[in-house]
Each structure stands twice: as structure tokens, then as C-alpha cells.
Amino acid sequence: MDAVSLPTLAPSARQSVKGKAPLGVIDILNATAKACPDYPNRQHVFRLRTIRAASFLFAAMDEEDVQRWVDNLTIAGRGGMDENGTVAIGLRNGPSLFDG
Which helix (H) or strand (E) holds 97? Predict the structure, then answer.
């Protein structure tokens, strides 16, 4: 099966984003993504919940971007296949991770 190409928070584990080293890897296999339109104090938020019950909040650029992320993370959580068995293609210009 081909790998799904999703954006990363850092180009590699040895490099940093905005001077901060990556904290680790998020295992998205069997994870669920859901928009959080009522999240207080922040717009365009979605939540990624892993199979191990870890929860991460992300802020996207707009509601359309939220939906693209939720859709693509849902596909990636299924091992990169959509409901028709088609390999998914990743996104560009992804969300930012923040403490929520």
C-alpha cells in the first residue's frame, strides 16, 4: 500500500519549527478527527484523537481547511484509503499545533 503524504510539523526529527524541536510523532492509524466549531477563544479548530486516547487540537486557516484536514486525517486513519479503496493524496499548508 502506498503511504499517504500529509504535512509534518517539522521537516525531520532533527530539525525544528520556529526554534522548537519536535516533541514526537502522532500515530494517526485508527485515529479520529472532528471539527470543533464551538471551541472557545480560537477559530477553525479540529481535534485528533488517537486509538490510545491521546487528544490533540489544531487550528486551521478557515472552515474549508478544517474540513480538508478532517477528511484527509480520516482517510489516513484508515490506512490511506477512502471508502472506495482509493489511495488519498495529502494536503498543503496545514494547521498549527497549539496547547488547548
Answer: strand 96-97
Long-range Cβ pairs for the range 51-58 (8 Å, 24+) = 51/27, 52/27, 54/26, 56/26, 56/97, 57/97, 57/98, 57/99, 57/100, 58/95, 58/96, 58/97, 58/98
Residue 69 and residue 94 in contact, taking contact as beta carbons nearer than 8 Å: yes
Q: Which residues contact 5 (CB under 8 A, 6 or more apart)?
A: 89, 90
8 DSSP 8-state letter? -
pLDDT in tens, 31-41: 999 999 999 98
pTM: 0.63
